[in-house]
């Protein structure tokens, strides 16, 4: 089966400073159709850079990007990409921001707005449709950005630490909600996180990236049964994965 996303031998170097900074080194990674893959690794190892390359926002120095078997290297493709910073438009309300992908896809305004209004309660944002981003909390902005990303009609979601600014309780809720969406629509997901627990809980595979320049040093299949519930975090297999990933992160 063709992978949904294939990153082939990607290398990237930034040249902003006095010395070139190699960030990613001959890294290959794939996400199968309907697969949930997490990317873990130390800060500064090139995870966000890799997601931008996958989204076609940066052209890698070497290597190629394939979407559904077609090469899209360096070209923005139709994917649901959520950057690490939320990037809501400050002059648009939450509702207007969230409706953007639907409007861009040609959905009439009324229909787009009512679709967003239906989703707001799931994200705990129902009272805030007409607020502007600077009137929302950091966690609320993040949830609004995630909602907007989910509304992109695409088989691939690239999510860069979407739950980082959330409290533990909201984070748990959003995880389960994301899994429910994923199970319902069978999209492919590439998910960046710093949480080993979160990566195991969500994923079919967890890829560990090394310190800069980033390479994949562990590609761990997670065979825990689905649907997953909180109890699974106490299973011996879960704890085994956790130890293995922790050891690999410390290397
Ligand atoms: N636009 C840029 N210009 C120059 N250097 C950059 C740029 N973006 C990122 N870098 C550098 O590339 C390296 C990797 O950054 P990146 O954001 O990809 O890491 P990350 O793995 O996502 O880190 P974190 O876990 O902290 O989000 C860092 O050292 C960073 O300083
Ligand atoms: Mg990052």
What does this entry look like structurally?
The chain is an alpha/beta fold and 251 residues long. It has 2 domains: 5-79 and 154-250, Rossmann fold, CATH 3.40.50.300; 87-153, no CATH class. Helices cover 33% and strands 23% of the residues. The protein has 7 helices and 10 strands. It has helices at 47-54, 94-104, 109-119, 138-150, 168-185, 196-202, 236-250; strands at residues 5-14, 21-31, 36-40, 62-67, 70-71, 80-82, 156-160, 188-192, 205-209, 216-221. The strands form 2 sheets. The chain has a 6-stranded mixed β-sheet with strand order 6-7-8-3-9-10, sandwiched between helices. A 4-stranded antiparallel β-sheet has the order 2-1-4-5, with helices on one face. A hairpin with a 6-residue loop joins strand 1 (5-14) and strand 2 (21-31). Helix 2 runs parallel beside helix 4 (138-150). The structure holds adenosine-5'-triphosphate and magnesium ion. Residues 47-48, 84, 160 line the site of magnesium ion (MG). Adenosine-5'-triphosphate binds at residues 14, 16, 21, 23, 43-49, 84, 212.
């Amino acid at each position: 089966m063709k992978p949904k996303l294939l990153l082939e031998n990607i290398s990237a170097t930034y040249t902003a400073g006095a010395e070139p900074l190699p960030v990613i080194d001959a890294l290959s990674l794939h996400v199968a159709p309907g697969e949930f893959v997490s990317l873990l690794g130390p800060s500064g190892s090139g995870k966000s850079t890799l997601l931008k390359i996958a989204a076609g926002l940066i052209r890698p120095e070497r290597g190629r990007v394939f979407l559904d078997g077609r090469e899209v290297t360096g070209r923005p493709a139709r994917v649901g990409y959520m950057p690490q910073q939320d990037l809501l438009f400050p002059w648009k309300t939450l509702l207007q921001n969230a409706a953007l992908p639907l409007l861009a896809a040609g959905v009439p305004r009324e229909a787009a707005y009512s679709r967003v209004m239906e989703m707001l309660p799931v994200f705990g944002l129902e009272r805030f449709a007409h607020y502007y981003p600077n009137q929302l909390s950091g966690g609320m902005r993040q949830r609004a950005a995630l909602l907007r990303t989910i509304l992109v009609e695409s088989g691939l979601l690239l999510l860069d630490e979407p739950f980082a600014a959330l409290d533990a309780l909201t984070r748990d809720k959003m995880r389960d909600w994301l899994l429910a969406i994923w199970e319902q629509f069978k999209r492919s997901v590439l998910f960046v996180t710093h949480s080993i627990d979160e990566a195991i809980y969500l994923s079919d595979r967890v890829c560990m990236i090394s310190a800069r320049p980033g390479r994949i040093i562990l590609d761990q299949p997670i065979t825990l049964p689905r649907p997953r519930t909180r109890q699974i975090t106490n299973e011996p297999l879960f704890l085994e994965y956790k130890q293995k990933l922790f050891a690999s992160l410390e290397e």
